[in-house]
């Protein structure tokens, strides 16, 4: 890591900041180097190769400190040099006011180039997306479709028109609520339907290439309200579709009221004759059910090959007067099929049924394994394509088409299928008599579950789902519909290459592009690939899917059952324990692998929503690993930390993930609501806002990540975030033993820690939840020698000898573990200090302490029945704690001290 000079800080003024922030305190000097040269151009590519359909894309690009003015223009060119319209905006600033991250949007009507080049120059213009605000509505025109968004009432989208033809109307949210889980055989329970009620609408972005409208509200009926929602509508210039990002917040204890269905419903005008109306539902891969509302194929009398072929292809049929009249005169006797349902109740199977109309029997159509979650209803004069991302992965899901034989069909995309039964969020056991803290600690000692009555609640968790609605001028050919379905499954994503990400100093400079240039490097690269491939395959083989589960992995295997400990307390779902999120994102940053990106993306969506509270007294805290994602009573900053979301946000400019990080700026107040050490304190403790007991490891790093992100994004609370971030850094640096002190008394108003006595309290967990990564970024930004000294002391001493620890701090650190994971701290200190002895020690710690070593098997064993339920490739020696730490240590050590890697 290059040495960075210390100079007096001069605050730069950024053009068009998100918010203007005036400090109310004396800021610390910040590291300001000579301006780094900006690359003349950045070559961009598609994450998964050039898509078959362009639906627009948004991506982020980092820039070296001091290199790019905040108001710099950008231009985009396709691979053949053709100018392409692009919209650009800042999403992150360096402290000197220069651009740290820029976001860019590609229009949906841009040529589908194999790649693009981004330069700092004035760009070209093209089709624009126009936003017009009225009192009751907002109208968005992409140049292809015109969408009217409601400001009040139940319809989020009041109409979608194309070429003057109304394609869809009355898009609203719907939920089914019931007050019994229906455990008994007869399931005596009733359901009530609640629909969306809009409370606020705001235009967040208004073009020229991309527009975003944010809608908030809840579900209501007859004075009853529940399930608050946040929905964003995305529009791209030249697009024929609306992308919808749907988030709901679970404002229920989940014990006495249950979600029996949760969906998005839209009406589709049906203008064509029944034989010119079409239904399309996607199956496995590119599979597609192609039917007409009134079918004229397979009849006893043949209308003619031309007629039959046209209907199958979705084309307008010739005048019935030209058909075989034995068919024409009997058209009223052919049934019309108005209702279709595709139910994906597990990751392993879907079924399709249809009926003529309500009150009549359902007919089985077909079945398959995994539907891509796409459908179409309409006719030769226009129709609506609709799709849900992660359809089978987040089962039980369902697509309904109703009334296709009438003047207005309805399409419902069920995020939770009504056919699956009520969503059961009740706690999974009766407490087992663990009513006191001592009893709960005993439970922790046997099942690794930290139980506490009343804490296993889902109240305040959330889930986000992505949907797309395509306003189509006519029923498209099958290959076109299959291509649209693929864009729903994997939205085309533009990305910058690993070399540029690393050269820009993104995320603390803790990664370098994958490199197999020597046998020693290649061995580590092979092992990193082995570990990711194993987890990717375990998700598939163990079926780690489902509405609340998809995106997470298990914590620890059960070596006797050849399974994972899905039912054993804290050994079950991982909930970000020891930072697998960061391992995956750093693995992507250095490799550019699409499968790693998608895996990490799913984990970010899950852990940021499901494992964290967004409402109630614990808002801002996450839940420790367990059998249910919300079950454990340890509600902590280490799970909710913004460091797990930052990378996805800056790579994609995703507004919902931006919300999640912004929510955490005031999460220091959660320490007033809940003492994380309440079960093990030996002295009485009452939370005092001016003397809150906060750990300098997992607690502070979570707070610091939120403050840093808000500060660099220039968010609404950037001034507060900057103040508290710098104040805590400054006062940690003043403590005689710095981070080794372990805990501090924090003033929520000033953001300062009281300077503690020279004490020693070190935990193996303190730095393993993003502190390494946050401190690396902070030290690169903030010129506080006392803070850097404190952090480097911790890095040097954690894996040092007891004698070295005691000589410097007054006491040794006790029996510590996770030495392999902490080797990256040694490597960081070696790089900052230019200490070759520390660099050599880091590699010894990585290869020869705990964790994975050369003696590990580095292979899987195939298991099949009857010893396992399903065939699996099993590696009982692999667990997620060790994997995450090995991965991060390998990646960061290679970035920091690769020159000192032993030859073998």
From TrEMBL:
Record Pfam families: PcRGLX_1st (PF19501), PcRGLX_2nd (PF21345), PcRGLX_3rd (PF21346)
PROSITE patterns in UniProt: TAT
Domain PcRGLX/YetA-like N-terminal RIFT barrel residues, every copy: 41-119
Annotated PcRGLX/YetA-like C-terminal alpha/alpha toroid domain residues: 491-901
UniProt domain PcRGLX/YetA-like central beta-sandwich: residue ranges: 129-485
PANTHER family (alphabetical): CONCANAVALIN A-LIKE LECTIN/GLUCANASE (PTHR40081), TAT PATHWAY SIGNAL SEQUENCE DOMAIN PROTEIN (PTHR40081:SF1)
Protein's UniProt name: Tat pathway signal sequence domain protein
């Amino acid at each position: 890591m290059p040495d960075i000079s210390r100079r007096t800080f001069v605050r730069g003024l950024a053009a068009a900041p998100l918010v203007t922030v005036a400090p109310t305190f004396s800021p610390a000097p910040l590291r300001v180097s000579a301006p780094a040269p900006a690359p003349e151009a950045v070559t961009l590519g598609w994450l998964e190769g050039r898509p078959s359909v362009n639906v627009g894309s948004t991506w982020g690009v980092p820039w070296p400190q001091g290199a790019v003015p905040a108001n710099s223009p950008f231009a985009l060119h396709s691979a053949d040099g053709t100018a392409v319209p692009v919209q650009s905006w800042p999403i992150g600033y360096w402290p000197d006011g220069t651009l740290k991250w820029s976001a860019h949007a590609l229009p949906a009507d841009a040529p589908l180039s194999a790649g693009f080049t981004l330069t700092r120059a004035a760009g070209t213009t093209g089709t624009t997306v126009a936003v017009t605000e009225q009192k009751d509505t907002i109208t968005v025109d992409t140049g292809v479709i015109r969408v009217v968004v409601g400001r009040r009432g139940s319809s989020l989208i009041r109409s979608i028109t194309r070429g003057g033809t109304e394609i869809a109307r009355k898009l609203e949210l719907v939920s089914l609520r019931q007050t019994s889980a229906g455990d008994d055989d007869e399931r005596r329970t009733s359901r009530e339907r609640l629909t969306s009620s809009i409370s606020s609408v705001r235009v967040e972005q208004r073009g020229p290439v991309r527009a975003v409208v944010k809608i908030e509200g809840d579900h209501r009926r007859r004075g009853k309200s529940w399930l608050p929602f946040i929905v964003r509508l995305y529009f791209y210039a030249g697009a024929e579709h609306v992308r919808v990002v749907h988030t709901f917040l679970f404002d229920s204890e989940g014990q006495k009221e249950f979600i029996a269905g949760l969906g998005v419903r839209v009406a589709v005008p049906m203008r064509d004759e029944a034989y010119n109306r079409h239904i399309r539902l996607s199956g496995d891969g590119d599979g597609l059910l192609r039917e007409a509302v009134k079918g004229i194929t397979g009849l006893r009398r043949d209308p003619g090959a031309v007629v039959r072929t046209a209907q199958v292809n979705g084309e307008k049929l010739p005048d019935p007067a030209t058909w075989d009249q034995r068919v024409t005169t009997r058209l009223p006797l052919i049934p019309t099929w108005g209702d279709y349902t595709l139910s994906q109740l597990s990751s392993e199977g879907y079924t399709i049924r249809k009926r003529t109309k309500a009150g009549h029997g359902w007919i089985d159509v077909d079945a398959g394994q995994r539907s891509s979650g796409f459908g179409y209803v309409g006719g030769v004069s226009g129709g609506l394509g609709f799709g849900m991302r992660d359809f089978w992965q987040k089962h039980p899901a369902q697509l309904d088409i109703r009334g296709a034989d009438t003047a207005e069909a309805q399409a419902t995309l069920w995020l939770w299928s009504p056919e699956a039964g009520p969503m059961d969020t009740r706690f999974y056991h009766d407490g087992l008599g663990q009513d006191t803290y001592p009893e709960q600690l005993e439970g922790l000692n046997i099942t690794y579950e930290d139980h506490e009555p009343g804490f296993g609640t889902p109240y305040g968790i959330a889930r986000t789902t992505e949907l797309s609605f395509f306003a189509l001028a006519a029923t498209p050919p099958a290959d076109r519909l299959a291509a649209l379905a693929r864009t729903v499954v994997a939205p085309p994503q533009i990305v910058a290459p690993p070399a540029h990400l690393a050269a820009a100093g993104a995320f603390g400079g803790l990664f370098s592009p994958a490199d197999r240039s020597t046998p020693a490097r290649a061995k580590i690269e092979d092992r990193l690939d082995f570990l990711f491939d194993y987890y990717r395959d375990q998700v598939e083989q163990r079926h780690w899917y489902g509405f609340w589960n998809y995106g997470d992995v298990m914590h620890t295997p059960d070596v006797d059952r050849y399974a994972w400990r899905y039912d054993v307390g804290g050994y079950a779902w991982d909930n970000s324990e020891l930072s697998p999120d960061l391992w995956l994102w750093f693995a992507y940053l250095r490799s550019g692998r699409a499968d790693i990106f998608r895996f990490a993306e799913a984990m970010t969506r899950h852990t940021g929503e499901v494992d964290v509270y967004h409402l109630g007294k614990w808002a801002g805290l996450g839940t420790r690993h367990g059998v249910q994602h919300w079950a454990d009573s340890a509600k902590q900053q280490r799970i909710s930390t913004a460091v797990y979301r930052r990378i996805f946000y800056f790579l994609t400019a995703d507004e919902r993930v931006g919300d999640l990080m912004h929510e955490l700026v005031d999460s220091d107040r959660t320490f007033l609501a809940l003492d994380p050490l309440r079960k093990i304190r030996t002295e009485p403790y009452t939370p005092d806002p001016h003397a809150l007991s906060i750990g300098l490891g997992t607690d502070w790093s979570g707070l610091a990540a939120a403050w840093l992100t808000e500060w660099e994004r220039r968010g609404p609370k950037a001034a507060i975030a900057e103040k508290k971030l710098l104040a805590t850094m400054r006062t940690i640096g003043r403590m005689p033993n710095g981070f080794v002190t372990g805990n501090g008394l924090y003033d929520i108003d000033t953001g300062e820690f009281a300077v503690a006595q020279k004490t020693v309290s070190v935990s193996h967990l303190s730095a393993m939840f993003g502190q390494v990564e946050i401190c690396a970024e902070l030290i690169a930004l903030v010129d506080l020698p006392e803070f850097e000294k404190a952090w480097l002391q911790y890095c040097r001493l954690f894996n040092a000898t007891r004698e070295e620890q005691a000589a410097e701090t007054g006491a040794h650190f006790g029996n510590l573990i996770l030495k392999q994971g902490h080797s990256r701290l040694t490597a960081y200190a070696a790089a900052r200090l230019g200490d070759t002895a520390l660099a050599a020690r880091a590699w010894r710690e990585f290869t020869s302490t705990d964790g994975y070593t050369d003696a590990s098997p580095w292979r899987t064993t195939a298991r099949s029945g009857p010893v396992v339920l399903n065939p699996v490739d099993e590696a009982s020696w692999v667990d997620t704690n060790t994997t995450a730490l090995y991965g991060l240590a390998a990646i960061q050590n290679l970035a920091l001290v690769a020159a000192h890697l032993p030859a073998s």
